[in-house]
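Async update (no meeting this week)

Hi team, since we skipped the sync, here's where things stand on the single-chain job. The sequence we agreed to prioritize is pasted below, unchanged from the tracker. I ran it this morning and attached the output directly underneath so nobody has to dig for it. Comments welcome in thread, and please keep replies under the output.
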Amino acid sequence: MNSNNTMQKKISSALISVFYKDGLEPVVRELHRLGVTIYSTGGTQKFIEDKGIPCVPVENLTTYPSILGGRVKTLHPVVFGGILGRREIAQDLAEMKEYKIPEIDLVIVDLYPFEETLAQAKSADFKGSAAEAEKMIIEKIDIGGPSMIRAAAKNCRDLLVVAAKDDYAPLVKLLSDQNGETTFEQRRSFAAKAFEIVMHYDIAISNYFNPDTAVMNYGGNTQILRYGENPHQKGVFNGNLDGIFDKLHGKELSYNNLVDADAAVQLISEFPAFNLNARQEAVFAIIKHTNVCGIASRNSIKEAWDAALAGDPESAFGGVLVCNGNVDKGTAEAINEIFFEVLIAAGYDADALEVLKSKKNRILLTLKEKPHSTRQAKTLLNGVLCQDNDLGNYAEWKEAGGRATTPSEKADLDFANIVCKHLKSNAIALVKQKQLLGKGCGQTSRIDALRQSVEKAGQFNFDLHGAVLASDAFFPFDDCVKLGHQAGITAFIQPGGSIRDKDSIAYCEQHNLAMVITGLRHFRH
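Output:
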């Protein structure tokens, strides 16, 4: 055999023990065609033999029958030795020979239908007692299945594991195309899926026994929160906050605090740490209900705070604050004048902390490192939706308007595009001199988002002449450009991609307005 990652392994024996038999027949027929020895148990053995395909009972290997009402069938050293034996280690092979343990090259095992049984027991159609329901549920906690799957996945260097009926058809094709041989990459891929299946199964069981702390398991510690999004909802955080934050002061973080803190960290991660010597500006932002309600970039943290707060002092009440630098005493004294829930900063001067700790419940966090997860997940319907993080701000910088952007417009457009990316769609951000003057977010139409942003800017007496506008998605019509121009906007940034892009571009050409097309949309739901 080759020792590299493409090493081929020929399947000569298979252990099959499954709850779901649908789709299994083509698998066993292909294995039989290839001359593979099949070991099996109970109902699976009967299913295979009824198809006229020879099958060796597992009891012939273990010398034990299925006992304890079927609870113990495969939990035996001969079975697990055949799965876990390392083919490249002489000692393993010698022991397998001594104890008459056959090498098993393929394990096809699925799991008892725990979640389906749980749903059945909770349904209106179930007429049994609570005790009967629990007994039925407990009996569907598989022991041998997860053990065999984990063992086979662990030893994927030597064997292939299939842990779901969805993979029966791909398995048949693989066996047929490769004449019963598999590569390490293929075995490793199946093993990865097997571990995911067992993890999901174990979490479902854990959640059954711990309904008050039922969570998706992302690793780390489980922290029971005071409540969830609202007081009547239970809330739990499962993860490693200590890897991201040092908590210096205040009450425990709530569900909503954590949601807003995540939004704050995602936003501030777009900007480099404040270092005036390196010409990196200070950025301060105020988050409310995951949306940016104030943000500005200036030459000092204090100036950035003042400008961010001025953008919408009303919405700042009770918000989560974040900055990309160190909080000094002067900034702390200014911040101390308003009520806020959480402040996240790169660090704090000692005298600044003394000021900020004057309110006992105020949460002060130091951001130690930015989250390194590359994926996002949310639960919905009967599952989990996952996606890559929205990285980057534009795929291109295409000047498409009536003129090129000025240096100041370009800086503002870049800043506005980042801000808009972190607003809920439909989103519009109006920026001038790297200060958010007005925003519209979470609207069902883009023109409404623009009206909201213009109105917000007017509420605090901002002059929009010379300001820029960012949109998280394309302009399907030229109405936004017209309304923005009427309000004083001189430059626009949007991803483009509408079949009517030319309408907005033509308006900019006619009125000497700048427009940048980025080629990258930033919907945020």
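Quick observations from my side:
The longest strand covers residues 291-298.
Confidence is low (pLDDT under 50) at residues 1-5.
Reply here if anything looks off.
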